[in-house]
Input
Amino acid sequence: MADTSKTGAPDVIVVGAGPVGAYLAGRLGAAGLDVLVLERSARGQVRAEAGLATVDRGAWAELEIERPAPGAPPLVWEHEVLHRAPLRKGAARTVPVPADVLDLSALSELLAARAEATGRVHFAFETPFEEVTIRGSHVVGVRAKGTQRAARLVVDCSGRRAEVREALPIETGVDLLRERPLRRYTVYTERWRCTGAFPEGSTDFVAFQGFARQIGPYALLVGASSLGGPESALDGLNRLIEVHLGGVAHRTEAVHAAEVPYDFPPADLVGDGFLSVGDAAFQNEPLGGAGLASGMRAAKIAAPHVVAALRDGEAERGRLWGYPLEWFRGSGAAFAEQRGGAEALLDLEPADFELVFRASPDARPVAGLAGALRMLRLIPSNPGLFARVVHGLRAGARLAAHCRAYPGRPGDLGAWARRYEKLVRQAA
Output
């Protein structure tokens, strides 16, 4: 690694100390890089506005993080199965899905402490990012809280705001994020303290894109999501409560309304001295509740490519190219295929969700040829819905195939990116 002791400049600046940024910083620090993490929030308040999130329990081992002991922060509650409930009473299905409910602020703090333990990572809280520093086409640092800070690489982990990427000038050759209309997913949640009987465990109310997660002995997290904004998400939650939870006596202890980007990742994830990860690169899966884990998986992919680039030279685009290459050809392709089917199900009316639910008796995701074959039973009752689902599956399959052909060098990205944008428009 470069000797930064004389300049005092870190190898890497990470903007954002949420779970993805803190996790990536820890992996880079463990590999011997000096990392400075800039975060606008106070310590202990990072991602506090987002409340709780549910992650597949297998993510701990996959991400090489020791799972907290039951009852220890950030673990709030744990589930072994998932109940999927349609409109019809008594027709719920139960599938084994071991999962943990996590406090996102506590998780951010856990990962920050883990990163600091490497001795190579420093966090600057209450230090908001302001602008990037450019030399030619190369990002060479940032200004934050009125102070210029230099680094060999700047990583955008600022979440849905994508603050660094959106501040890049045209000279860097990195495109700004181009969100399509209505491409932010609003998740509206309420934390209930129940005073009587309530649905214990973890339940997805598929017809309303909603859920009820037990988060304590008498505590319930109830929510719904929509691409139509906060009012639409709240309307969905109210309809869900009326149909499924009307008899649950409770008092509401907290309310959260959070937006997450719901779009396909940009074709370019890196530039000279720049890299983006997680929500800042749309690498999230909000429909499946796996946005947190998918962003951290992307960070795990990125870390060794960053280490190799800085070990052998500077963080030029070509030296960082292994990260988008590996991500698009692997996780990105799977992501595209799943999202193709998901796009067809966005904001369906409850009765149509009910039909899709009946057509998928094993509760597997609607993806690929197998998903299309399962949907054949929709034809007699709703041929239009069948056509919509199949269109989404076909679009997802084409996009996944294109992702697996991600170019091996930056010079070939142009033609690939134009085709990618066309396929994204067809899928969306």
